[in-house]
Amino acid sequence: MALIIFLAFALLLHGALGELICEQLPVDLCAYSIATSGQRCLLENYEEKDGTVKYQCKTTEIFVDTLNEWIESDECVSSCGLHRETIGVSSDTLLQPQFLAKLCSDECYQACPNIVDLYSNMALGEGIHLHFFICHQ
To answer: Is NADP there in the keyword field (predicted)?
Structure first.
């Protein structure tokens, strides 16, 4: 049922906007999404003059070759051990055994290509091949 609601919302959002633009996404859908342009969306926070912290969705300079107009499902975010309110993305999570266990699980690794691609590219940036050296030890 949740998947049907998610797909309906994604189609409605796409139809209303004409294209998926990170800056127009609600903050609770920003993390792990990809714009129509193929650029990853990133949740950032900033402080207002009165000291309150606000969140905004921003377009990154990182392009994804195979996916665009992608809003990651809540099921994938959860099964990969992630959270929608994640601010930025860091390769530091690749050092956490609990996170790696979730990322390498069949529920994540086989079903969530966007998240696997993101963390595979981060691992490659650190000189590690996620598939061979981390998930299949």
So the answer is: no
